[in-house]
Amino acid sequence: MLNRRAFLTRLIGSLSVTAFGPMTLLRQAWARVLPGTLAADPRRPQIHLLPAANWMNDPNGPIYWKGNYHMFYQYNPNGAYWGDMHWGHAVSPDMVHWRHLPVALAPTPGGPDSAGCFSGTAVVHGDRVALLYTGVVAASENEATIRDGEHSLRESQCLAFSTDRDLNAWTKEPLPVIPTPPPGMDVSGFRDPSPWRHGDWWYMVVGSGFRGKGGTMLLYRSKDLRHWDYLHLLSQGAGNGKSTANPVDSGDMWECPDFFPLGDKYVLIHSAEGKSFWQAGIFDAKELVFHPEQSGVLDYGSFYAPKTQLDANQNRILWGWISEKRPLEEYRASGWAGMMSLPRILTLDRDENLCMMVSPEVDKLRRSPQTLILSDKEESIRQQLARMRISDGCGEILCSVKAASGEFHVSIVGDGEATQWLNVKYTAARPGEITLDEKTVPLRSDNINEIELHFYIDGSVMEAFVNRQIAYTKRFYYPGSSAPPVGIRISDKTNFSSLTMWQLSPISSNRLTT
Ligand code: FRU
Predict the structure, then answer these.
(1) Which atom of ligand 1 is nearest to the CA of 271?
(2) Which residue puts its alpha carbon closest to atom 8 of ligand 1?
(3) 169 CA to middle of ligand 1, Å?
(4) CATH of domain 364-504
(5) Right CATH number for 4-357 from 3.40.50.300, 2.115.10.20, 3.90.550.10, 2.60.120.200?
(6) HEC states along 453-496?
(7) pTM for the whole thing?
(8) Confidence band (pLDDT; 50, 70, 90) for 403?
């Protein structure tokens, strides 16, 4: 959060010598990028959800309601930079094709969200949909719950309701439903409420933490979503021991918690230190205590602040914010920043490890398959791969590699051999790990004969999955006005047992997802 906000604060700070000077300069600096320019930017995705222009971050309150999927997200209507947080809104029949709807939540002057509507959750309550979200207001240092060296903001948990079929009209409760953290608690943050229903009660975790001690989740309970009782900490981390201005960076503040049943276990998710983490285990519903048994990293790349929902078939779907990895000045000038991940179905394997795969809804976009004809002759494989191409920067590659055969090195390349966008390396000598670019990450390898590699490539993003257990979201940027052709390259020792490549059909005619 610091980095996004830091830019804005620094810019305003450096310009605040005259009353109207900053606004004039800000308007110049953030001149609107025209829709035609955005539509022609080959780095903009064609199958990922993002606003028609400007900045987005976290998914907020994804929900299936009256036959449609609704996605809300952190949105700045003023430009492609973090600030002035609103809840953007889009609707879809299938989690793939989206239509933008008017902004759902905007800060109310003088209200508990006057400085921003931060992240939260949507739930169905009776015949209405409720949004629980964090409102922020400017506050003095000693009243603030966000003190990160750049900001002084007070957070409270707020509530809004909608009854209409399209969820267009929202009525906010004028006062916060949880105005302050529990009395006597000196917390490092207090945000991103995440409720769930259990029996007759609503339970809710709120992301929080203690400086120098670690991140945490505060557990609350309510009958009506309006009156909440604080119970205890549902989970407590240890932090990384570093002393950072922003407690999120030291793991002393956990953002965007989510807690949900999966099979006969429970999963807890939180985000901190630039990554998102999962824990799976047992929820003692009597004592209201979570006993984690397994844990891991949800995605090793540009993926943060995820949120889950149930789809129409009761699958648990994970959505994440895919952030930019180019300099802030560059994305601000491009007129857009950030996108939503593809919907990923979560499951637990028999050892309680979290697995994920992109929802089969996305398979509907496949066209023009190109399949590798297997051969013992290395030259034949090379020649075929050299001809296989994804054009227009939007496609999918699914392959299986024989792990027992020793080692392999697979690269996704742009422009022939010229640019390696992603490298995957494996050696049977170290079966418990795999290397994605520079990162070597654990691979659960019991009885692995084949390693499945799955890549979704779209404009300037690649979502990569290894054996449905490792996810790695990669951003890559290239100059110019068209996307280079994408291909796959291999080392001598790579031994495929299958490989297919598809073009993926854009979800809108103009990259604006309208
Ligand atoms: C995570 C986060 C949340 C907060 C929101 C503000 O990226 O920092 O904790 O509610 O973004 O935009």
Answers:
(1) 1
(2) 1
(3) 24
(4) 2.60.120.560
(5) 2.115.10.20
(6) EEEEEECCEEEEEECCCEEEEEECCCCCCCCCCEEEEECCCCCE
(7) 0.94
(8) confident
